[in-house]
């Protein structure tokens, strides 16, 4: 997601960092920014407007005479990217009794999956959603929606023997009113391309039932075609927003930047993976920070709050600070980290200056592989051995090594690293108690060392790499 653009912009920032900008090198920086956006598949009209605004602001703020001109330029670029992405987060409307949400899009855009993901998101907000299978032309779509609804525990309304879409939607709304559903998500039919019949059907639903939200589901992987689709739907139906799917698989990301500019409609959600939970509210400011390599700690914290059980995390933190922290607890921590997403996704949210695309890919790949090796190693032990690693003699280590495909030397190294980590965490615990005892405001460590629910990435330690 935006990897190529992010890497190019960070290189430009490095080039200008610490320099007093002149008219020549500022023009060069703007030329490089222009190239970076074009290579990211951002449409030419968007790029021209973007560069023009940056130049006007830079000259207007007398950037050439500033105290730290390169930082001013970065701020201007950041502000303009935020503006380009919509300015601010636009939450989903919950008006209406029930609230009607109509999902639109072409076949293959991820519309049916997004309907289920959206239903799960609403359910987590204590709403009672109802999914409506209004794609009467593709029986597989109905079956898919019913299957997904069953997975997330959400009700679905469908009529397999009824081809009248407006009648299905009317019955679904009546069903929702009679059964306490306050959000109705209508999964409409898609086509391989926009046609007259498709638009006539959608316009009929729109005029009869007046949905509060008309969300276009667009596949980010199709690039500039996403812009054409969005403009077409918006002209015909007047969209309220966009759901951009498969954004995690698009290294360029130009579609996201171009869709907002060309339609004037906000991106409300992004699909960030195949998992049913992988639908995230879209925040322009956070995305701009990620593009410029500043990380997105707020989103990571929110994800931790949602994914990790706070009570269990606090118990693990207490154990981690004591001598009772076992390998069994260690595996539980690994599972909590996995719940935050892949290493690649987590690294994208952390502010790591100078981490290039290749470095990030290598680090993510090695990190994932190392966690799998550690998990296999620990799972090859008996429950008693996990709780009491001191009992691992030579014979036991050979058995464990045979079970996980590693060597006895690997196991010895891991156990030594684990003991070092325990000592380090015990020392941190002692420092924390001492600081609290002195009443030092600045020394008081936050719960979980910066993560909600007690999650602490540092607890993984720096385990030496083995095979």
Describe what this molecule looks like in 3D.
- This protein has 467 residues and is α/β, with parallel strands linked by helices.
- The chain folds into three domains: 82 residues, Four Helix Bundle (Hemerythrin (Met), subunit A) (Up-down Bundle), CATH 1.20.120.140; 175 residues, Rossmann fold; 158 residues, Signal recognition particle, SRP54 subunit, M-domain (434 Repressor (Amino-terminal Domain), Orthogonal Bundle).
- Helix content is 56%, strand content 9%.
- An eight-stranded mixed beta sheet has the order 3-2-4-1-5-6-7-8, with helices on both faces.
- Helix 9 links the parallel strand 5 and strand 6.
- The chain is flat and about 75 Å long.
- The two termini are 30 Å apart.
Number of helices: 19
Give the class from helix and strand content and strand pairing. Answer: alpha/beta
Main sheet: strands, sense, barrel: 8 strands, mixed
Write down the CATH class of the largest domain.
Alpha Beta
Rounded mean pLDDT is 78
Write a brief caption for the model.
The protein contains 19 helices and eight strands. It is of the alpha/beta class. The chain has three domains: 82 residues, Up-down Bundle (Four Helix Bundle (Hemerythrin (Met), subunit A)), CATH 1.20.120; 175 residues, Rossmann fold (3-Layer(aba) Sandwich), CATH 3.40.50; 158 residues, Signal recognition particle, SRP54 subunit, M-domain (434 Repressor (Amino-terminal Domain), Orthogonal Bundle), CATH 1.10.260.30.
Properties at a glance:
Four Helix Bundle (Hemerythrin (Met), subunit A); Rossmann fold; 434 Repressor (Amino-terminal Domain); alpha/beta
